[in-house]
Every structure is written in structure tokens, then in C-alpha cells.
Amino acid sequence: MNSQDNKSINLINAEKHIERLVMEGAELIVLPEYFNFLGSEEQERENAEPINGESLNRIKKKAIQYKVYICIGSFLERENNNIYNTSIVFDIDGEIIAKYRKIHLFDVNNPGSIVHMESKIITPGQEVTVFKIKDITFGIATCYDLRFPEIFRKLLNLGAEVFLLPAAFHLETGRDHWEVLLRARAIENLAYVIAAAQWGFHPINNTCYGHSMAINPWGTILAQAADGVSNITVNIDKNTIIKIRDTFPVLKHRRSDIFGI
What we know:
Elements: H1 7-23, E1 28-30, H2 41-47, H3 54-66, E2 69-71, E3 75-79, E4 82-90, E5 96-101, E6 107-109, E7 115-117, E8 129-133, E9 136-140, H4 149-157, E10 162-167, H5 171-189, E11 192-197, E12 199-202, E13 206-209, E14 213-215, E15 221-224, H6 238-247, H7 256-259
Parallel strand pairs: 1-2, 9-10, 10-11
Antiparallel strand pairs: 2-4, 3-4, 4-5, 6-7, 8-9, 11-14, 12-13, 14-15
């Protein structure tokens, strides 16, 4: 997606993406980070919503209408005096089956390059999140979390076989780090990585790298979006996870007695 600071237009675009992916046979749809609003820090507080606000209610209706699972990516969640960067997963009945609040906040102040202080507005989450769809266990991380392998190891220890990673990765770092980090998280955990990204220029004077990507547990890229706004679809195969983890025993050789994870 290329979400902007007009929430109404972003929601219409998200609904169109969902409808197209349903037509392509998708059963689980993953949207990017900040799917419904991506604007300036000054606008973030006024655009934050509770879980039962308009944005999520509209996506919930699509999950029920099309009988699909939908990970919204993330949105600005307002709870009391706090605002979180929150991922939500709806099941086919519109019930919330997973909620994850981004743990690692992107605070970088490099004048002339990247200036972004997420913690000025966002309160960090405190818990990791896993959930099941059929016989597959999923874990959720968000954007900057990608740089911290310990969160993925924690998700693995909780049974995760597929990592969902909604993101709005900066162009400057994305060109060199995005694919490398995604493939590393897949390879070291022998897990699928499904990364849905924002692309292009946004009103916060930021350009996102895009290149949404799906990677299998061997680290092979199954699909990658080109520059621009587009959708990709892939099949997640439980047998592939089992076969790779059985034949390549690296996960059995972990020394949690020394390293703790």
C-alpha cells in the first residue's frame, strides 16, 4: 500500500486490496503497518482509534463478508492516555484472535537523512503474540522488530512456524537491509516470513522501500512485489515446514542452557 494522511481514502484502498486478494483465492490477508493512516506526528494523536473504532470495524466486516482471516498490519490504537502501534488479526467470523503491540520503537535522529522518533507518540508493547489458523502457528512482529532476532526466537519457542511482519521500512535502510533481514529471520528459525510493506512517498517527508515479500523456511523468496502498489499471493505449506525442520536439525542444536533462548 501507499497509505497517506487521508484515513477515508486509505480505508477504501485497503478494502479494494482485500477484495482483489479474495478474488485470487487468499484465505489470510496481511496489510502493512499503519494501513489506515500514515502522516505527521502532529496528526497521529487525533487519528488514533480504539479497537472498536471505525477503521477496524470496516475491516472486520470484510472478514465476515468474505470469510477470510485478515491481519490489519497495524494501526494507531488509543487506550486511555496511551497510543500503541497495534496489529490485530480477525478470523472469518470477525472475532479478534490476535493482538500485538509493537515492542521496539524506531527512534532515529540523523538530520539530513532519517529523522523519526516513534516513542514521542507511541507507548511500547510488552508481550509477544502467537495464534493458530487451522494447524499452523503464526507469530507477529512489526517493522523495526525485524532487527531484533530475539523476538523471533521467543516466537519460535512459543511454536511459531510463520512470522507475519507488517512494515513501513524506510527507503534508505530498506535498499540494503530489508531482504537480508527477512531472509535471515526465515533461515535461522526455519520459518515462513510474510512481510507486507508500505511503498513510496508519505506526508511525513518519508519514502518507504516497499517490496512486500514472502519467504519460505529455507530462505527462498517465493514472491516479491515490484516498485509500486500491488498484491502478492503465496501458498503456506505445513509439510514444507515439517520437512525442512526434520531434515535440517539446526533448531535441535540450540544451546538454551547457555544463551537462554
